[in-house]
Amino acid sequence: MSADRTGFERALRDARLLITAGSGGVGKTTTAAAIGLRAAQAGRRVAVLTIDPARRLADALGLSELTGELRQVDPTHFEAAGFACAGEMWAMMLDIKTTGDQMVRRFAPDAETAARILDNTYYQYFSTSLAGAQEYMAVEQVRTLTADERFDLVVLDTPPAAHALDFLDAPDRLLAALDSRAMQVLRGGSDADDGLAARLLGRGKGLVLKSLNKLTGGPFIEELTDFLLLFGSILDALKVSSRSVQALLRAETTRFFLVSAPYRANVDEAVHFKEQLDRRGFPLGGFIINRVHHPCPWIKDDVETLAHALDELADVPLARREALVTRMLAALKAHQRMAERDREAVDRLARLNHGPPVLVPLLPQDVRDLRGLDRVARSLTA
Amino acid sequence: MPEPPHPFDRRFLLVTGKGGVGKSTVTAMLALRSAQQGHKTLVMELNTQPRVAELLGHEAAGPEVTCVERNLWLVNIDPSRALEEYAVMKLRFRALYKLVFENPVMQSLVRFVPGLNDLLMLGKAFNHERETDEDGGPAWDRILIDAPATGHGITFFRLPKIIRDAVPAGNMHRETAEMWALLTDPQRTAVHLVALPEELPVRETTELHAHLRDLGLPLGHLFLNMVPPPLLDATTRADFDRLRSRPADARLGLLWDITQVRLGREAQATGYAEELSALRLPQVTLPMQYSPTFGRPQIEALLGALPAS
């Protein structure tokens, strides 16, 4: 690898899996698509997976909708948008709403157990928020795609930051919860337990359940226990597949890119997220900051001088031209204040030692078509 | 004629929206206005990076209810502490609590029970609503809750109903039934939504609105945050539009670029504001504050956008 390339360009060329993460509303999905497009423009065959049902992204890609099925962007659309694309661009949306059910069906030892889990009141209420199940399936799906020979690169757009952490932890967390001693206790205690803990628990089980029942009243705990026991039955199958997912997320050819807007709260989250990645040994490729106000010089000339320079409006009274110039200068002032704010965000992320962040300027409109996406894609490597 | 609705019409106010849209900003400005009007106001932040104190120029609030300025109290709810308080109250003995809840087995179970943390935080909020002063009147004139972000937020609001229905009798049934009664009571409660004039926040706000309405929660105002105020009036706009292409003059070229971006953002925001007006909620437009920093002066500047009361 030549030394003059940035980490980002290297990743675009060599990585097999790129993952974008960041807080909500920072333009993460668009960034994932722009990264995919940039790589496709360089000749790679790219699959972009998004989790948000991004209507606008589907429009931008010229797809009628994004579904759980992979679809290729029609190459003639690139030409129509005025650029060449040597590679291929595919996209799909991960349908995480039904993945909890899928997971249960796939890993349950038999159809009857699967049916009982799916039937459990508690599972039904919480299947949409069950710690890690959806994320787990999503990551599984990514693993399948990275093994698919039709693609050189998979770009994964994760849910907003708080949940993206769940995403990364999903396999481990789900296993930890299901494999926990709490489960053993609820299952009826473990014979192999050791020393004090065993005595505490032996006594504890009854006490724990009694106290919990006192707290909740009613059969809440029985229902929960039933659920946990049933769910525990799919544990071993999950464990095996979890290991390969974890290996994939830490592979040499995987890179995470943290996407942020220049707002402080977003930058805080990006910093927090970097710490989380480091702690888990997930490879960070760098930061991408969207909607940046680039610094620009102040104009020293007075309003009248500028108004006189507006040749095209020579027939308009000078006072009106001056009024326009005054408002344009006000916009420049506002822009500069924002540039000052953005600079702080850029400096802060640059200090985290991953080279200067990739900056995408604030555009007059958010991306709505391939032309706009191309504009963002080009600014990524500008 | 009926009075137009005001964000302070109800006493128990929840502020919600997609992450990063400015829920804390709206919570902070409502809290400040409420306190300035002489109402005893409590702000509750739920298990998040507390932001409200800082926005108002105060030290961060901890898990204790703290008075930060005249008429204004802040608290950041810590779910594990809330669990302890609740359990000690019900089990009556701290030693028993320790035995049960501080044992690693129990802690691992508690972590796994989805929604337990949320329920505990909501329970705290509920208790503050019931709290009385020495004369037996309500301890708080107004309670503002910086609620979790959408997605998570929907589960959060549904939770008392879920538990109430899942647990047919007993303590927890009774408590969650009362919580649900409070959340759905249009006399006491309003849920304010916060949005940005951008695609995802607008879509999520529309979805959230539908969910909350279906749940029967009383909706309050829609706060549209960071809206670029109009740069040009009709005359200057017409003149600007006559500039067909980017002026060759470097100075005017720069001004043209910057103005293009600004007008583009304005137009986009206007489109989204119109889209959101379909929700038929009273809207409060919060103008973008073009300032490198965001703190109390900006919050105070935004107070002007609130309807008079």
Biggest β-sheet of chain A: count, sense, barrel?
8 strands, mixed
In which range does the helix fraction of chain B lie? 40-55%
Major sheet: arrangement of strands of chain B: 3-4-2-5-1-6-7-8
Per DSSP, the total helix count of chain A is 17
Query: What number of domains of chain A?
Result: 2
Gross morphology of chain B is elongated
In terms of DSSP E residues, the strand content of chain B is: 15-25%
Tell me the total number of β-strands of chain B. Answer: 8
**What value does the average pLDDT of chain A take?**
79
- Which CATH-level-2 architecture of chain B? 3-Layer(aba) Sandwich
Q: Helix-strand pattern of chain A, N to C?
A: HEHEHEHEHHHHEHHHHHEHEHHEH
- The number of helical segments of chain B is 12
Please describe the structure with a list of short key phrases separated by commas or semicolons.
heterodimer; A: 382 residues; alpha/beta; Rossmann fold; 17 helices; 8 strands; B: 309 residues; eight-stranded mixed beta sheet; 12 helices; elongated
Tell me what the structure shows.
The complex is a heterodimer of chains A (382) and B (309). With 382 residues, chain A is of the alpha/beta class. Chain A has two domains: 7-172 and 249-296 and 343-380, P-loop containing nucleotide triphosphate hydrolases (Rossmann fold, 3-Layer(aba) Sandwich), CATH 3.40.50.300; 303-338. In chain A, 57% of the residues lie in helices and 12% in strands. Chain A contains 17 helices and eight strands. Chain A has helices at 7-14, 28-41, 55-60, 75-80, 99-107, 111-119, 121-126, 133-146, 161-179, 181-187, 195-216, 220-232, 235-249, 264-280, 303-309, 318-350, 370-380, and strands at 17-21, 45-50, 71-72, 88-93, 153-157, 254-260, 284-292, 358-361. In chain A, helix 2 (28-41) crosses helix 17 (370-380) and helix 8 (133-146) packs across helix 13 (235-249). Chain B has 309 residues and is of the alpha/beta class. Chain B has a single domain, classed as 3-Layer(aba) Sandwich (Rossmann fold), CATH 3.40.50. Helices cover 49% and strands 16% of the residues of chain B. Chain B has helices at 23-36, 52-55, 79-91, 94-101, 104-112, 116-130, 152-166, 171-183, 199-215, 234-241, 250-277, 296-302; strands spanning 12-17, 41-46, 66-69, 72-77, 142-146, 189-195, 219-227, 283-287. An eight-stranded mixed beta sheet of chain B has the order 3-4-2-5-1-6-7-8, sandwiched between helices. In chain B, helix 3 packs across helix 4 and helix 3 crosses helix 6 (116-130). The longest helix of chain B is centred in the last third of the chain and has 28 residues, at 250-277. Chain B is elongated and about 80 Å long. Chain B starts with 11 loop residues before the first strand and ends in a 7-residue tail after the last helix. The model of chain B has no long low-confidence stretch (mean pLDDT 86). Chains A and B meet through helix 7, helix 9, helix 10, helix 11 and helix 12 of A and helix 3, helix 4, helix 5, helix 7 and helix 8 of B.
